[in-house]
Amino acid sequence: MAKIVVAQEQKDSFESSLFADVFQLRYEAFVNRLNWEVVADNGRERDCFDDLQPYHIAIKDDEGRVQGCWRALPTLGSYMLKDVFPVMLQGESVPRHRQVWEISRLVVRKGAAKPTHGCIGDISVDLVLSFRDFALKHGIRSYVTVTTLAGERLLKMLGVRLRRLGAGKVIQVGIEKTVALWIDVNDIPEIKKN
């Protein structure tokens, strides 16, 4: 049975092993598997946005190992779309509101998921469900995110209504074709797992 854990690094020191697992999983996915050009050290991927006390939402298996995760940052300060990928806004104003947060660094451990919603794995479904739960607990109305076309397709397959920001064009970022998305929390369905 998967367990969802929500923690902030500075506040939840009791979860220090969680953060080590999250950064290691991100390294495995973004450096080893996807070959992205990201900051990595000692088998862990951690960037400057992790210094801003974001929330890390993780799914742990029965043995306590992180199988999937994502990071949440409010748009009132620095965040990836605004500070790293502003070109993705394509003319739209920079989102900045206490009820609008950014989803970033979403990852699922390769080979860990079991199909549950058509061809989509259970961990991906649980992560998307956690968007809604996290938002309701933190007064979040909408999310923004920069994601790959595959990430956008997964969200649509799960019934999440979303819109591309700005002109909505696909932009090549490194080796990935990417889009910036706006997701209203009310447009995240309560997904039924098979």
UniProtKB/TrEMBL annotation:
Keywords recorded for this protein, A-Z: Autoinducer synthesis, Quorum sensing, S-adenosyl-L-methionine, Transferase
Q: Which domain of life is it from?
A: Bacteria
Keyword S-adenosyl-L-methionine recorded: yes
Q: Would the keyword Transferase be found if you checked this record's keyword annotation?
A: yes
Q: Which GO terms describe its molecular function?
A: N-acyl homoserine lactone synthase activity
Task: Read off the Pfam families from this record.
Answer: Autoind_synth (PF00765)
What is one GO biological process annotated to this record?
Answer: quorum sensing
Q: Name the Enzyme Commission number(s) assigned to this protein.
A: 2.3.1.184
PROSITE patterns with a match to the protein in the record: AUTOINDUCER_SYNTH_1 (PS00949), AUTOINDUCER_SYNTH_2 (PS51187)
Reactions catalysed: a fatty acyl-[ACP] + S-adenosyl-L-methionine = an N-acyl-L-homoserine lactone + S-methyl-5'-thioadenosine + holo-[ACP] + H(+)
**Assigned protein family:** Belongs to the autoinducer synthase family.
Q: What is this protein called?
A: Acyl-homoserine-lactone synthase
- Source organism of this protein record: Gynuella sunshinyii YC6258
